[in-house]
Structure formats: structure tokens, C-alpha cells
Write a structure and sequence with these properties.
Keywords: Membrane, Transmembrane, Transmembrane helix. The chain is mainly α. It contains 7 helices and 3 strands.
């Protein structure tokens, strides 16, 4: 499948281009709508706190964090952290990002199955992503198929983590849209703008999953060829 050097180089180029394109898309979309003020004039922090309070999650805090697009939800400390621009700003993009991160807090509160599964995968997925490539390379260089297979198995956990992340992120975005609309945070054409921000962010996860699956399939095919030889 990737026998020729030219084909292999094209394959590697595609694996590099897809994530870069997704990152560029989300940065450009975010930059555009971070300059558009929401009609509610609510800051990202206010949006997050209103959604949390409306859903009875009074034990979840909202804090600013340095950097751009560093927003995340920490389930261990029950904290929604928003980049300073989103925390203090009043943009459509800031409202969308804040609502998305609170969407993860809502998932955590109700015990959303995919979120629980992803959290359970973290240790083995982290270990697999760090060690698998060394096992695979070792298996290739030493022609030890068992070592190669062990690397593939460990890599599969990292890939599974990427795949499970997709429903977690899409569900958080869906919750975000429902919340900002029902609470009147955004209005009319802002719904379309908010969805563009959320969709662009989702592309990064889709791109990461595609790359991970492609790499896993490539190594599986190489393992099959090794066994044939």
C-alpha cells in the first residue's frame, strides 16, 4: 500500500496537512468571531457561571488561564478554565467556547458514559502513545513480530481514546448550543456564528482521529506483510 517512496512521502504529507489545516481553520474562525461582540454583552465568565448556576452546578468554579485557546474543564478539581480573552471578553467566540467547556462539566455531573470511558482510558492511552512507536520500530529493526504486535496493541488504545473523544466533544458542543440559546446568551443570526466556532473546533478532533486511525491501519498492514514474509 505504501511500498514506493513517493507514495509514502505523499502519505506522510497528508498526515501533516490534515492537522495543520484543521488548526488553521479553528484559529481563523476563532479570530474572526472573537472580534464580534455578542448581543447579550456577557463575558465568557458570566456565560459559564450562568449555565452552571442554571443547572445547579454550584460546586464548579470558573477561572481565567493564560494563553489562547487554552480553555478546558478539569474534572478532578471541578474547574472550568477559560483563556483570559474569553474569560473577560464579550465576543460570540468567547461565549461559544465558555459554553462548550461548561458542556463538559454537565457531562461530568450526569456521569455521561463516553466521558467516563474516556477518563478510564487516559492511563493506558497515555502509556500506549508514548511507548508503542518504540516497540513497533524495535519489532521492525529486529524482525520480532511479537514486539511489533505489542506496539500495535498499545497504539490501538491511544487510537481508541481519540475515537471516544469525538462523541464527547460533539455532545459538549450540542449542550453548549442548547444552553446559550435557551438562556438568551445569543440571538438570531448569532446561532449560526456560534455554530461555526464550535464546528471549527470539532474539526481538530476529527483530524486527530483520522490521522491516528490511518497510522494504526498502516502498521497493521505492515505487520501482516511481516508475517507473510
Amino acid at each position: 500500500m505504501f511500498g514506493s517512496l513517493g507514495g509514502y512521502l505523499i502519505y506522510i504529507a497528508i498526515l501533516m496537512i490534515i492537522p495543520l489545516w484543521a488548526q488553521s481553520r479553528v484559529k481563523n474562525t476563532y479570530r474572526k468571531y472573537s472580534q464580534v461582540a455578542s448581543s447579550s454583552r456577557m463575558s465568557g465568565a458570566e456565560v459559564a457561571k450562568q449555565i452552571l448556576n442554571d443547572n445547579g452546578l454550584y460546586d464548579v468554579n470558573v477561572e481565567p488561564i493564560k494563553g489562547q485557546l487554552t480553555d478546558h474543564y478539569d474534572p478532578r478539581k471541578k474547574v472550568v478554565r477559560l483563556s483570559e480573552h474569553n474569560y473577560y471578553g464579550h465576543s460570540v467566540a468567547g461565549a461559544a467556547v465558555a459554553a462548550h467547556e461548561v458542556g463538559h462539566a454537565l457531562q461530568d455531573a450526569e456521569g455521561y458514559s463516553f466521558l467516563k470511558f474516556r477518563s478510564a482510558l487516559v492511563p493506558v492511552a497515555s502509556f500506549g502513545s508514548n511507548i508503542s512507536i518504540f516497540l513497533i520500530l524495535g519489532g521492525m529493526l529486529l524482525t520480532i513480530t511479537e514486539l511489533f504486535l505489542a506496539g500495535i496493541v498499545l497504539m490501538s488504545f491511544a487510537v481508541l481514546f481519540q475515537l471516544v473523544t469525538l462523541p464527547v466533544e460533539f455532545n459538549a458542543s450540542s449542550r453548549a448550543m442548547d444552553q446559550v440559546v435557551s438562556l438568551g446568551v445569543i440571538r438570531n443570526d448569532e446561532e449560526r456564528e456560534t455554530k461555526k466556532v464550535l464546528d471549527a473546533a470539532a474539526l481538530t478532533y476529527v483530524a486527530a482521529a483520522l490521522v491516528a486511525v490511518a497510522e494504526l491501519v498502516r502498521f497493521i498492514l505492515m505487520y501482516v506483510m511481516m508475517n507473510r514474509d
